[in-house]
């Protein structure tokens, strides 16, 4: 009622209304959500799109399809996800058109086309167009939800058996079509330890220290980055050490610079520091700098000061609108041990709240003795994939 009576209601009020409508579960809110979907405020439109998906309101599918042309990539991503739930036939052609671009949304569009049609032509817009033109000539109809569930299971089995190859960047066994990537690498003291499961890392991984293995994997990934990709790297222990202030193009010069920087990475507070500390040279050991500030590292992609409580309101929405980064690869071997938050449940909650407007995908990669549930949940809650490299 507030929305209908006062279209000038504050952004924060309308944002919270849209969120509440999605959580309440009452589907008799189509008119209200229709108004919110046309809001001038990005975070309001995003929350309204999410609510349509949560409530599975098929009657608003056509309105959501129009948001595939929104100026904000975060809105386009949210619309793609909701379209995969409500499955309007009107979305097929716009999704094919969107797939002709580059980056993460290309992959998301391909997945949603599968959810609408139960057909799978990967992220190949030409093949999708050819098949869609054919389907339109035979009065094709949308498959049922039951048909989609069966198709998903069949695809899962096929992917396990045959594997799945696309034109993607891959790090730690996780592939992405994103062209806006940040690598966050743990260089705390424990990364100086040797891996235990040496049979998994026998070939091409140097001395089998954790950081040596990570370095080799990251160097290969940097080599594979295409020119259209923008990337950055952050090493973290107690403090953050970014390679660049901002993401840069993956041209020959920048890739060479990144590789040289990665080769110089060393664990902070590793075995040598432990030896100094044992000898009584605690100051020289600098063990305090070698702790694991997981929370601080996870705030870096958002450009948020980790020591300040985040504002998940209008301020956060305006900041996220300017953010081009859409994919993070986060690699760590240990438990959070320093920073404003060290409880993994609190860290997960804060990241999830902030990421409601940023829409960054977090892929997580673990090596060594770590909290598997934490890194798995971090990926799952933020649209990513979790990989366990071994101990």
Molecular structure report:
By secondary structure, the protein is of the alpha/beta class. The protein folds into two domains: 2-162, Leucine-rich Repeat Variant (Alpha Horseshoe), CATH 1.25.10; 169-390, 3-Layer(aba) Sandwich (Rossmann fold), CATH 3.40.50.410. Helices cover 48% and strands 11% of the residues. The chain has 18 helices and nine strands. It has helices at 2-5, 11-24, 30-37, 42-55, 61-66, 73-86, 92-98, 104-117, 125-136, 145-162, 210-224, 252-263, 271-278, 282-285, 294-299, 314-321, 344-358, 372-381, and strands at residues 169-171, 174-176, 180-186, 230-236, 240-242, 248-249, 327-332, 361-367, 386-390. Strands 3, 4, 5, 6, 7, 8 and 9 form a seven-stranded mixed sheet that branches. Strands 1-2 form a two-stranded antiparallel sheet. Helix 17 (344-358) links the parallel strand 7 and strand 8 (361-367). The longest helix has 18 residues, at 145-162. The radius of gyration is 23 Å and the shape is globular. 43% of the residues are buried.
């Amino acid at each position: 009622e507030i929305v209908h009576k006062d279209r000038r209601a504050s952004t924060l009020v309308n944002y919270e209304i849209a969120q509440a409508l999605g959580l309440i579960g009452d589907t008799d809110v189509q008119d209200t959500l229709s108004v919110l979907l046309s809001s001038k405020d990005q975070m309001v439109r995003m929350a309204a799109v999410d609510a349509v998906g949560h409530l599975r309101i098929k009657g608003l599918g056509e309105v959501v399809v129009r948001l595939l042309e929104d100026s904000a990539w975060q809105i386009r991503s949210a619309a793609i996800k909701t379209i995969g739930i409500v499955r309007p036939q009107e979305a097929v052609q716009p999704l094919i058109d969107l797939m002709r671009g580059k980056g993460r949304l290309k992959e998301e569009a391909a997945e949603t086309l599968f959810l609408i049609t139960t057909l799978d032509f990967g992220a190949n817009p030409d093949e999708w167009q050819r098949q869609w033109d054919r389907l339109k000539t035979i009065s094709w109809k949308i498959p049922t939800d039951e048909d989609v569930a069966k198709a998903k299971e069949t695809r899962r089995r096929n992917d396990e058996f045959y594997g799945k190859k696309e034109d993607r960047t891959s790090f730690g066994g996780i592939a992405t079509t994103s062209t806006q990537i940040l690598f966050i690498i743990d260089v705390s003291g424990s990364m100086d330890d040797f891996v235990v499961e040496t049979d998994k890392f026998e070939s091409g991984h140097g001395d089998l220290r954790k950081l040596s293995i990570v370095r080799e994997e990251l160097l290969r990934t940097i080599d594979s980055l295409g020119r259209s990709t923008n990337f950055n790297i952050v090493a973290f222990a107690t403090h953050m050490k970014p390679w660049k202030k901002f993401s840069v193009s993956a041209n020959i010069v920048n890739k060479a610079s990144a590789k040289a920087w990665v080769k110089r990475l060393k664990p902070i507070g590793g075995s040598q520091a432990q030896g100094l500390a044992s000898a009584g040279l605690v100051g020289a050991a600098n063990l305090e700098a070698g702790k694991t500030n997981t929370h601080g590292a996870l705030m870096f992609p958002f450009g948020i000061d980790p020591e300040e409580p985040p504002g998940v309101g209008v301020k956060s929405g305006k900041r996220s609108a300017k953010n081009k980064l859409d994919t993070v690869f986060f690699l760590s071997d240990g438990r959070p041990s320093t920073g404003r938050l060290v409880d993994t449940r609190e860290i997960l909650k804060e990241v999830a709240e902030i990421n409601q407007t940023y829409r960054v995908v977090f892929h997580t990669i673990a090596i060594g003795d770590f909290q598997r549930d934490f890194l798995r949940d971090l990926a799952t809650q933020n649209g990513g994939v979790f990989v366990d490299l071994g101990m």
